[in-house]
Amino acid sequence: MSIYDIIGTRRRVLLNLADYGLPEVPLLGVNIQSSATNELEQHVHRGCLELVYMIRGRQVFTVGGREYHVSGNQIFLTQPDVPHGSGSYIMQRSLFYWLHVYLPPTPQSILSLTNRESLLLADALGGIGSCMFNGDKKIEVLFEELFKIAFSPGADLQRLSMSSRLTELLLRVVECSRREDSVTVTAELQRVLDLLEANPDRYFSVDELAAAAGLSASRFKAKFKRRVGIPPAEYQLRKKIDNASQLLSRTSKSVTDIAYSLGFSSSQYFATVFKRYTMKTPIQYRRDSR
């Protein structure tokens, strides 16, 4: 059973698990972002860790002035009281789950664990130093199971079932953060990303990018999608739209100049692609960002 079967036609569901006897989890959410929306303003969660698990698509989050480009099967995590948002980046089409968990500063039972077990889990989560790392497909399954339990009124042992799934989910997050492959981008893929960053006006073929990575085309495509979350061609296009958004909001360059500087064949084609990703024309986006 998929999340669509569980929540029906709704595209955004927020649950306060205090309603299920778990006040330490004030938010369990799923967001099916079918169109682009405005930027996520900077905010904090007092005393709560926030965990975002991306299923598909891509979102950019910012923490301390640093950007994190989060794609499929990647985790974005912010510690309690740490300001974060999406900076100047719009919220793009995507599917992701997220969770807020209260981390007690002193021994206190959470998720039906003993005081000592609760403190060990809170210390492990609070000790995660990375804001972004690779996830585990079992995490998606656990999120789906949580929603299935929540939408099964009168289910026997509902609170215990939810707390056991939450505990397993959080333990898997800790394990993912400690893996040797938790770094989302390997050295050969970083060379490709650096190449794309240095040449915003170009479109590179898969063969060209594979050569830069020192991999065969088939292996490069598979590795790129596994690590970055989307195919190379889509990444290039999304990167160009991100760059265009920055130029529209921060410079007075004309739409035509921006289009050509990013390798688009015409300003009309650029405007079409830009609106597909942002739901605004370049002119509308510039006006709304100022």
TrEMBL record:
It comes from Limihaloglobus sulfuriphilus. This is Arabinose operon regulatory protein. Keywords: DNA-binding, Transcription, Transcription regulation. Residues 190-288 form the HTH araC/xylS-type domain. GO terms for molecular function: DNA-binding transcription factor activity; sequence-specific DNA binding. InterPro entries: AraC-bd, AraC_XylS_family_regulators, Homeodomain-like_sf, HTH-like, HTH_AraC, RmlC-like_jellyroll, Tscrpt_reg_AraC-type_HTH. PANTHER family: HTH-TYPE TRANSCRIPTIONAL ACTIVATOR RHAS-RELATED. The keyword Glycoprotein does not apply.
